[in-house]
Each structure stands twice: as structure tokens, then as C-alpha cells.
């Protein structure tokens, strides 16, 4: 297992994993037609842009095992004045789940945030219906930071939940 910063040539693999993960996990939570017919192309364009012209506060880390992309995390340092650094994406290939890769990626994300934005908190947003993800974050001492409605790319209004840690160090401590 090896974690490294993403490079431009990773964009298609990241996009495929991201879209496939949405298709598997968000079935019944997002519009079926969107998941079946549009999510692949939208994610491909998004990741090509993110890795061609990254924001100055963007970090993207990939986890590989024997040269295979098993997961990735994308975060934006100091994204919110109130909440701090946002973990925008965390996805692990379905066949690789249960091996601790999500926890490893969160630890690496916390390390990245601690290095670059140590004075702010760290948070993420989860679809209300994504029960396994919510349980995972709560197992890592995430604090409940409230509900909101997300206007998804498919046009749906989706209930979501925000979880936070007071600092990158707090998340890092929870992953060890």
C-alpha cells in the first residue's frame, strides 16, 4: 500500500472510481438516470480540470496497492471560515473496502491539513442516506455539525449531514 499526491495522469482513474462509487453508494439517493448516463462524463471533466488547474488550497491523495488505484481523498484547505478544511471526496474501491484504506486516507488528509492549515478545523459532508459512511465517521470521533440540503448536480434536493473535527490533529489522533 502506498499513498502519494495525485498527478495529472491519474485523472481518468480517479474519475472512474469516483463515478463508480457514486453509482454504487448513491443508488436511490440521487436520480437514477443521472447516475446511469451522466455521472461518468461529468466526473471525468471535473477531475481533468481539478488536476490540470488545481486550486492553491487543493490536496488530492491517492492510495495504490500493487499499482492499482484503491482509493483517493480530495480536500480544500481553509475552505470555510467557520469549519476550516473541507474533505470534499473520500472514496475507496468497493472491492478494497474493509482493509483500512479509508482510515489511512483520512490520516493522510489530516496530515496534509496539519502541515498546511493547522489552525483551522476539518470537516466533511455526507448524504443523509449514506448510513455506512456516517457510522464510519462517527467511529472516528467526528462531531455532529448539523444538517443541510444539497442541490445535487442532477437537480435533486438531497438531505446531507456535516461532521467535523476541531483540528486536523484531532482527526489524525482518531485514526491512530
Q: At the third CATH level, what is the topology name?
A: Aminopeptidase
**Overall tally of domains:** 1
CATH class: Alpha Beta
- How much of the sequence is in beta strands? 25-35%
CATH architecture: 3-Layer(aba) Sandwich
Amino- and carboxy-terminal Cα gap: 17 Å
**Which spans of ≥5 residues are poorly predicted at pLDDT below 50?**
none
Largest sheet: 7 strands, mixed
Q: How would you classify the helix and strand content by structural class? A: alpha+beta
Tally the helices.
Answer: 6
Inertia-based shape = globular
Question: Helix share of residues?
Answer: 25-40%
Write down the overall mean pLDDT.
94
Radius of gyration: 15 Å
Element-by-element helix/strand order? EHHHEEEHEHEEH
* Sheet with the most strands: spatial strand order: 1-2-3-4-5-7-6
Explain what this protein looks like in three dimensions.
The protein has helices at 11-25, 32-37, 39-52, 101-117, 131-139, 168-175, and strands at 2-5, 58-65, 68-80, 84-92, 122-127, 143-151, 157-165. It starts with a strand and ends with a helix. It is built from 6 helices and 7 strands, in the order βαααβββαβαββα. It has one domain: Aminopeptidase (3-Layer(aba) Sandwich). It has 176 residues and is an alpha+beta fold.
Amino acid at each position: 500500500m502506498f499513498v502519494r499526491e495525485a498527478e495529472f495522469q491519474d485523472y481518468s482513474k480517479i474519475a472512474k472510481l469516483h463515478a463508480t462509487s457514486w453509482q454504487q453508494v448513491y443508488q436511490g439517493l440521487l436520480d437514477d438516470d443521472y447516475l446511469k448516463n451522466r455521472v461518468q462524463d461529468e466526473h471525468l471533466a471535473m477531475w481533468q480540470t481539478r488536476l490540470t488547474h488545481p486550486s492553491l488550497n487543493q490536496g488530492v491523495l491517492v492510495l495504490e496497492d500493487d499499482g492499482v488505484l484503491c482509493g483517493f481523498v480530495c480536500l480544500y484547505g481553509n475552505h470555510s471560515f467557520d469549519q476550516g478544511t473541507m474533505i470534499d471526496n473520500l472514496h475507496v474501491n468497493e472491492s478494497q473496502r474493509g482493509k483500512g484504506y479509508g482510515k489511512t486516507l483520512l490520516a493522510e488528509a489530516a496530515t496534509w491539513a496539519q502541515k498546511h492549515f493547522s489552525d483551522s478545523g476539518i470537516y466533511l459532508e455526507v448524504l443523509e442516506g449514506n448510513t455506512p459512511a456516517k457510522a464510519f465517521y462517527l467511529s472516528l470521533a467526528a462531531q455532529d455539525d448539523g444538517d443541510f440540503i444539497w442541490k445535487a448536480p442532477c437537480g435533486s434536493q438531497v438531505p446531507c449531514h456535516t461532521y467535523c473535527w476541531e483540528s486536523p490533529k484531532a482527526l489524525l489522533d482518531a485514526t491512530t
